[in-house]
Amino acid sequence: MDVKALKAAHKLLAEYKYEPAKLKKGYTDKTLYINIGDNRIEAKDVPASMKEKFIGGKGYGLKYLWDATTPETKWNDPENEIVIAGGPLCGITQYPGAGKSLVVTISPMTDIPIDSNVGGYFGPYLKFSGWDALEIQGKAKEDIIIYIDGNNGVIRIDEAPLEAIDGHVVSEELTEMYADSEEDKKNISVISAGTAANHANIGLLNFSFYDIRRRVARLKQAGRGGIGRVLRDKKIKAIVIKFKGTKGDLNKPANQSLINKAGIKLHKQIHDYDDVQCRMRQIGTANIIEVMDEYDLLPTHNYQYGNHPDTHKIASNVFVEKYITQGMPDGCWFGCSLSCAKAADNFELKTGSYKGHKVTIDGPEYENAAGLGSNCGIFDPEMILEANFYCDTYGVDTISFGTICAFAMECYERGIINKEITGGLELKFGNAIAQLELLHQMSRGEGFGALIGLGVKQLKRIFVEEHGADPDFLNDIGMEQKGLEVSEYLPKESLAQQGGYGLTNKGPQHDEAWLIFMDMVNNQIPTFEDKAEALHYFPMFRTWFGLMGLCKLPWNDTSPPDNHLTDEPAKMPEHVQHYVNIYNGVTGSNIDKDELILQSERIYNFQRIFNIRRGKGLRKHDAMPYRAIGPVTFEEYESRKERYDQQLKDLLDYNPEGKTTEEKIKIMREYRLNQYELLTDAVYKRRGWTPNGVPTIEHLSKIGMELPELVEVVKNHI
Amino acid sequence: MIKVNSKDFEWEEGLTVQKLLDKKKYTFPKIYVTINGEIVEKEEYDITLIKDGDDVKVIHLLAGG
Ligand code: SF4
After folding, report:
1. What is the pLDDT of residue A319?
2. Is the CB of residue A25 less than 8 Å from the CB of residue A253?
3. Chain B partners of A565 at a C-beta cutoff of 8 Å?
4. How confident is the model over B14-33, as a mean pLDDT?
5. Inter-residue long-range contacts of A44-51, CB under 8 Å, 24+ positions, other chains counted
6. Domain ranges of chain A
7. What is the dihedral of CA A402, A403, A405, A407, to 10 degrees?
8. Which residues have a Cβ under 8 Å from the Cβ of A429 and sit 6 or more positions away?
9. A222 CB less than 6 Å from ligand 1?
10. Residue B6 lies in a domain
11. A484-537: per-residue pLDDT in tens?
12. What is the per-residue DSSP string for A499-547?
């Protein structure tokens, strides 16, 4: 890699010098605006009113995006922005999981704002460089790189014709280019996408952090909703930040000891109990592959079923024992003792543009193993790792890709599409080589792979319009909502989780609420009101991580040994108190756990109204495909006949004896769809919304969000 | 008949907590078990007998996300 030659080809388009603002109590109160259309770089002051209502992170992102766009702005219009922000807690090193960035843009998949929470060092370094947020607007004419030097206060926009586009290559090139030495590499973080993001709407962003032990730039992903596609549409190859001098107190907290106390307690708990709890340090989120299978929740064959006899081949131990090098814990920001990041080193690729290369692969996360693996009927760990690698480096959202592939495979097996349409690929469940070929095609923008990159919603339209498919059936089995693919849990037997997917702001991603155990297994939220309470509390609580720059895993993938003796074990009360304490410790405020929820509620409702402003965000947009709710096909019903027959008897007082499967499916469908409607009513009510899903003016006023621009939008719907 | 998480479950002679967990395929590591409101420690799952009519709760602690 001759980075000198790459650098020599750069052409400076703009340079901006600044005095990095000092951090105080978690904020600099300055944000950075870069317009790459006219090469304008400006500093903005954050007004006190914005700080009070929007807090930081995703709150700032949504606020800037609202101001920058109109209801008609499309994802590929120049005024669409990519906003990246940590939050007041982002960058602390005493408490696990405090290095996240939140990224917001208008999504090419959903045409509404998408937000994504991502690790890597960029978010903290941005703050330490003087900026609470970075807004990027406009479109460049040629490929560019944005470089922020946070120590010297220099920002450059360079035309950059020679650097690679694929994430793992460009991250290495730019880490090498901007670091003064090997030691200095840890001070660099690179945001990139990949070649598939040139074409595919499911393009993601890679955020790098340099792993000094492995001597490689590792990648974490802002996966959902196509933000990488927006980056590449703006002709940005990469955004690079450099900051030297990371220390624990750079946030200049108001009360360091509050933070330290919470940190010490959690570190000790993780040290003492993680090995018998979630084994996050050993295998990360993949620990639940086999658990989901046991509970009939692991999506297999496009969410038709919840388990598979071959799951043992991709169980977490297989990855630990055979592929994950160094059994040592691995964190994506300093001080995270939960350390769930994992990597397979020296993995030799068998296909594609990097065939024969030995690479480091981050993962697999649970979602990758389930999406790329079981949901597509693939139970070969090496193939899953290879697809995982290519998704990351080409810049493809593994969750969407897995779900789209599973959908296309089912369509193929049912004869809705054929080899002529797939360009010769035999797209049966289990065909891992065909799955990889789709990725390679996507990276070149060719063939059936290019269509896959458009997502399930577009594929359904194409299959209906061009190949005569039955639209009702495709709507039943195509696992997307609002244009975003469902993430990798089977929600059929948990009404609350159907709501956890459906009654969300950005689409069916499980990061608002994961209620399957509470609901289906523990039976702790039996009534509609109970479920509605959970679908109020958890989405609000989890929104808060996005305002702060925090990772959610240290909240509930480790628990205090006496958690079960508390009033509300599901909420992890001790951890909630830690969060209150570290927030007060950093910012000098004096909030309690209720005010924490109120902070989130303001942003949650703002995002809902942002959707409504764009002609979405109403009840009809919260409907789910029936595959998420109950058995669509004969085979699905028959595979769990005993369970479903029993439910017909117990819940509907309906005698299944002598009835055809089709009749039973019909009765079950009416019942389950009605349950979802009743749940929707209860949840909207609890959230202070009308039956059409619109926040009421009274509710906005109650939560201190009666802003004129919001009232203007909702009053047309009330 | 016993209750497991408020739902009916067939009782049998010699049913221990561990046997119940095996039968229900409750393999998730972060659980706690109560019988009639009393916590059963993990080390005692093998030796704790469940009586006919008991109210058993097996609470899986992975909530919210
Ligand atoms: S728990 Fe994992 S993802 Fe979260 S901050 Fe720690 S290492 Fe990163």
Report:
1. 87
2. yes
3. 39
4. 93
5. A44/A135, A46/A132, A51/A27
6. 3-242, 256-485, 496-558+591-715
7. 160
8. A301, A376, A377, A378, A406, A409, A410, A413
9. no
10. yes
11. 999 999 999 999 999 999 999 999 998 899 999 999 999 999 999 999 999 999
12. HHHHS-SSSS-TTS---HIIIIIS----SHHHHHHHHHHHHHHHHHHHH
- What residues of B are in contact with residue A291 (Cβ under 8 Å)? 27-28
Domain assignment of residue B65, yes or no: no
Please indicate whether residue A332, judged by its CB atom, sits closer than 6 Å to ligand 1: yes
Of the candidates A685, A632, A638, the residue with the CA atom closest to the CA atom of residue A499: A685
Q: For a pocket test of ligand 1, which of A209, A340, A552 has the largest count of ligand atoms closer than 8 A to its C-beta?
A: A340
Given CB atoms, is B23 within the 8 Å cutoff of chain A? no
Please determine, looking at this structure, whether the domain spanning A496-558+591-715 carries the CATH number 1.10.1780.10: no
Distance CA(A501)–CA(B59), nearest Å, equals 22
Ligand 1 centroid distance, CA of A100 (Å): 9
The widest CA-to-CA distance across chain A, in whole angstroms, is 79
- Per DSSP, A85 falls in state E
Helix, strand, coil share of chain B (percent; to 5):
15, 35, 50
Side chain identity at residue A84, one-letter code: I
- The CATH number that applies at residue B35 is 3.10.20.30
Residues of chain A with confidence (pLDDT) below 50: none
Q: A578 near A265, Cβ under 8 Å?
A: yes
Taking the CA of residue A119 as reference, the ligand 1 atom at the shortest distance is 8
Indicate the Cα dihedral angle A173, A175, A178, A181, nearest 10°.
-110
Q: How many residues does chain A have?
A: 718
Distance of CA A545 from the midpoint of ligand 1 (Å): 13
Chain A residues within 8 A (CB-CB) of chain B?
A: 276-279, 290-291, 294-295, 510-515, 517-518, 521-524, 526, 534, 537-538, 541-542, 552, 555-557, 559, 563-565, 569-572
Number of structural domains in chain B: 1
Residues of chain A positioned with their CB less than 8 A from the CB of B62: 514, 517, 556-557
Position A681 scores a pLDDT of 98
- When CB atoms are compared, the residue of A291, A513, A559 closest to B61 is A559
**Contact call for residues A49 and A276 (beta carbons, < 8 A):** no
**Rg of chain B's alpha carbons, rounded to an integer?**
11
CATH number, span A3-242: 3.60.9.10
Helix (H) or strand (E) run with residue A484 in it: strand A484-485
Pocket test for ligand 1, best of A89, A95, A553 (most atoms within 8 A of CB): A553
A336 lines ligand 1 (CB under 6 A): yes
Residue B35 lies in a domain: yes
Task: Spell out the long-range contacts of A69-78 with Cβ–Cβ below 8 A and sequence spacing 24 or more.
Answer: A69/A106, A71/A613, A71/A614, A71/A615, A73/A106, A74/A106, A74/A111, A75/A105, A75/A106, A75/A107, A75/A108, A75/A111, A75/A226, A75/A229, A75/A230, A75/A233, A76/A108, A76/A230, A76/A233, A78/A37, A78/A137, A78/A138, A78/A139
**Cβ(A211)–Cβ(A246) under 8 Å?**
no
SS3 assignment, position A41: strand
Residue A551: CB within 6 Å of ligand 1? yes
Cα gap A458→A465, rounded to integer Å: 11
- Tell me the shortest Cα–Cα distance from A348 to chain B, in angstroms: 34
Which pLDDT value is given to residue B63? 58
- Whole-number pLDDT of residue A326: 61
For the domain made up of A256-485, give the CATH fold. 1.10.569
Helix (H) or strand (E) holding A33: strand A30-35
Residue B19 within a domain: yes
The residue range of the domain holding B23 is: 2-60
pLDDT for residue B62:
74
Residue A150 near residue A128 (C-beta atoms within 8 A): yes
